[in-house]
Write a structure and sequence with these properties.
The chain is mostly helical. The chain has helices spanning about 1-20, 35-55.
Length: about 60
């Protein structure tokens, strides 16, 4: 469980930075809806990847 959450957060941070969805100085009120959708799709891919890997761990 700890391993999974650690991997989720590390992948989420990497994806967050790589896709430049949220600049460091941005706030939630200023997020472009299309960029937010892109991040949502990315996060869904991350969760799918984690779910597949945890099947092998359990």
């Amino acid at each position: 469980s700890d391993i999974v959450s650690a991997r989720i957060s590390s992948w989420a941070l990497v994806g967050w930075e790589d896709s430049a969805v949220l600049p460091q100085d941005d706030t939630l009120e200023k997020i472009d809806a299309s960029k937010l959708q892109q991040f949502g799709e990315l996060f869904a891919l991350v969760l799918t990847k984690v779910a597949r890997e945890t099947q092998y761990w359990n």
